[in-house]
Amino acid sequence: xxxxxxxxxxxxxxxxxxxxxxxxxxxxxxxxxxxxxxxxxxxxxxxxxxxxxxxxxxxxxxxxxxxxxxxxxxxxxxxxxxxxxxxxxxxxxxxxxxxxxxxxxxxxxxxx
Amino acid sequence: xxxxxxxxxxxxxxxxxxxxxxxxxxxxxxxxxxxxxxxxxxxxxxxxxxxxxxxxxxxxxxxxxxxxxxxxxxxxxxxxxxxxxxxxxxxxxxxxxxxxxxxxxxxxxxxxxxxxxxxxxxxxxxxxxxxxxxxxxxxxxxxxxxxxxxxxxxxxxxxxxxxxxxxxxxxxxxxxxxxxxxxxxxxxxxxxxxxxxxxxxxxxxxxxxxxx
Amino acid sequence: xxxxxxxxxxxxxxxxxxxxxxxxxxxxxxxxxxxxxxxxxxxxxxxxxxxxxxxxxxxxxxxxxxxxxxxxxxxxxxxxxxxxxxxxxxxxxxxxxxxxxxxxxxxxxxxxxxxxxxxxxxxxxxxxxx
Lengths: 112, 212, 130
Known about the structure:
heterotrimer; B: mainly alpha; Helix Hairpins; two-stranded antiparallel ribbon; C: alpha+beta
């Protein structure tokens, strides 16, 4: 099935993604407004993937986590750094691994 | 433990319990195999994410640099204006791949990379720095879509792994011991009843003999 | 009794995604959309890259004999950590990928399972047996 792409973040991120063809974009300003937009994107049947910058996700932290826990399979949500390259210290994937496998894993680069 | 399952000590119950224990043990063994396979799949997904993330994030920062350059050269307003004229109907194809009972999204798309003519903004109002920025972001978008797919797979597998682990533990530490306990109880009672019966029969026999 | 239903449900789920029937490598290569129908009503697609890899590993005479997807059978009887690839040609190609020899049936261990799945994610599937 075909889907469109949406992006929520700062002006640079949204402009860049729009230039590349993303259909829906929202520049984050006020928390309530952004949450409403995110909800709109999450419940749209047209959107298959939403990019959200780490900064925005962190600002909306509680509601964001809740929405991620309760959302349907689609749209997919991917958090990306904005132009400052900011990534949060807590890597959710590492956390998931710790919980699932019970240890931290560092994968060595192999020659594939 | 035995009283957790209220069963009457008779042969039918014994047979039923044996069947249930067999099912529980089969379920336990198979879910353990599933767990092992999920761990293999999870590690593979994780390995792919590492590679995918580095590439994608590197390209994203390249793209941001190109965009900043564009803002500087062309001006912010003009850039944003050009963005409004760009064709923004990029489509991705999402289908489901199945793995051991879980649905994992597979994401593909057609041409992400367009050229200055097909993007939609007019050429004489814009400069080549815009094309550069657009091209870098298109490349970044492609890699990020791949990353989204891989991350979705890893999280779906992790979730299923946790669920499966819980089931294996429930079988191993709760259900199977309970069934075994109940089984033991019934067998003991049946043995007891049989011995009581045997003793009673002997006594009756002795009485009959006496009266001969 | 609820526990029993749950166990049966989980067991059914293990193989729910498996194909209704398999197709030969030869047939898969000839289709524009190489895929097989699955038992739960959808389709499972093979990646062309993998089909080409398989074709390279086998003589053309075997293309008709290789049934796809190849199954890695997980059976508790084999013991934890062990799996089996059945089928003469299937075992042959799996063995080739692992750098081993094979005769009719191939018993493999966890790291080998991982390697096979990494190389052929859509043309190899897990099959649970009991």
